[in-house]
Design a protein that fits this description.
It is built from 16 helices and twelve strands. The two termini are 22 Å apart.
């Protein structure tokens, strides 16, 4: 993560005397998924000092009035309320029940107050929507489950959303992608607080890799899942499956609505309620992902890729590709091949250089210049392939960030390869 000199003082905000980083408050809401909710409870709530893991003090807080109902109809009773957050130096929001609902104002006020007093605020998966609603992600890089990233970027345009990240550490505000990426971020917090030995010992106890990389996970594996697992029992599942199998054909949302025997309006409403995304945006995203895969695995020209992904013209492909991934198709292919010479493991990476951080106004989208972290291959490839387009702004919502070794915004904080990886869902 590139440092921003104006933002560093915020990241280094002094922690209030009554707050301590090892006191971790986990904010739970009714309707939250139990798996994401259990991650910080397991990481920070169990005494593993016998294994060399320093102990945290856990405060499980109800973000709203009880009872808190979660996955499968279970009811939870949190021992603390929002007032307990005032003692925590680390506050974790593991998930939010619906990206279409606004979080409770009292919980947002508690998060803002904690942040103002120097607490570290963490959002796992859809918890990023709560942080964004509190204004804590304004002008910052962040991630969430890649499926919800377009919605987060659209609803909060001042947030620099990158759906291709495993997690993002922006100093005093951290976010992770979906589900298992929350474990990676929590391990990263332990590593930051107590070092690699403690994090590795905890990973052994949890029986998870201490530090995952893109090569460990595979390049495409976590880009293929397009919808929540729950859709399997929904009547729209057959329509979605058909769409994914026929991306090479030119069809629109009207076609999908007709296959579902619904009006366009009803189909839009049902699709959005099920996925959190408009069907047109979802369809475009799937076509872009398919184009991304073909650019990585084939020698088709950009024009041929456009046709094989259902775009009506190469111009349409280039426009959508740049908006979602922050680079032209040719530039992306050149950078990808430079990073993975002859099919081997990545040897070099790109780092986006952020000239200015802040809300994006009309014509004020962020401009990124590619810089090689190691060597000159990918930077030169990107510059050559993207010649003539350097002056065009890229989307602040989907910047092409594929670095392997980031730079943390926290002064003096060790840099971790796992900090900028592909999301899992």
């Amino acid at each position: 993560m590139s440092q921003d000199s104006a933002a560093v003082p915020d990241a280094a905000r002094k922690l209030a005397a009554r707050r301590r980083r090892e006191i971790v408050a986990v904010l739970l809401f009714s309707g939250g998924p139990i798996f994401e909710s259990s991650i910080p409870l397991s990481v920070f709530g169990i005494d593993r000092q016998d294994a060399g893991v320093p102990r945290y003090r856990l405060l499980v807080c109800a973000g709203e009035d009880a009872p808190l109902r979660t996955t499968g109809g279970l009811e939870l009773s949190a021992p603390y309320g929002l007032e307990a957050i005032s003692r925590a130096g680390t506050v974790v929001v593991p998930a939010w029940r619906s990206i279409t609902q606004a979080p409770p104002p009292a919980a947002l006020d508690a998060l803002r107050r904690a942040h103002e007093e120097g607490a570290r605020i963490v959002g796992l998966c859809t918890g990023a929507f709560v942080l964004a609603a509190a204004g804590l992600l304004d002008g910052r890089p962040a991630t969430t489950h890649w499926m919800y990233a377009p919605t987060l970027a659209k609803r909060y345009p001042s947030v620099h959303v990158d759906p291709r990240e495993l997690f993002v550490d922006d100093g005093d505000v951290l976010t992770s992608a979906g589900t298992a990426a929350g474990i990676d971020l929590c391990l990263h917090i332990v590593r930051t607080d107590h070092g690699a030995d403690a994090a590795n010992a905890l990973a052994r106890r949890l029986v998870v890799p201490p530090r995952r990389t893109a090569s460990d996970m595979g390049h495409q594996r976590y880009l293929d899942r397009s919808l929540p697992e729950e859709i399997g029992a929904d009547p729209l599942a057959e329509v979605v499956a058909w769409a994914l199998e026929h991306l090479h054909e030119q069809f629109d949302v009207e076609t999908l609505a007709a296959r579902a025997y619904m009006s366009r309006r009803t189909f839009d409403r049902r699709f959005r309620s099920l996925t959190g995304s408009a069907p047109l945006q979802w369809l475009i995203t799937q076509r872009v992902l398919q184009a991304q895969r073909l650019l990585e695995t084939s020698d088709y020209s950009v024009d041929e890729v456009a046709g094989r992904c259902g775009f009506r013209s190469p111009v349409a492909l280039r426009g959508h590709f740049r908006r979602q991934l922050g680079a032209s198709p040719a530039a992306y292919r050149a950078a990808y091949r430079a990073r993975r010479p002859q099919g081997g493991a990545p040897e070099t990476a790109l780092r986006p250089e952020r000239a200015e951080r802040g809300p994006m106004g009309p014509g004020g989208a962020e401009r990124f210049s590619a810089a090689a972290v190691a060597g000159h291959g990918p930077a030169a490839a990107l510059a050559a392939a993207d010649a003539g387009e350097a002056g065009k702004p890229t989307s602040d919502a989907f910047a092409a960030r594929i670095p392997e070794t980031p730079v943390s915004r926290s002064a003096g904080r060790p840099v971790l390869p796992s900090q900028r990886e592909r999301p899992v869902g």
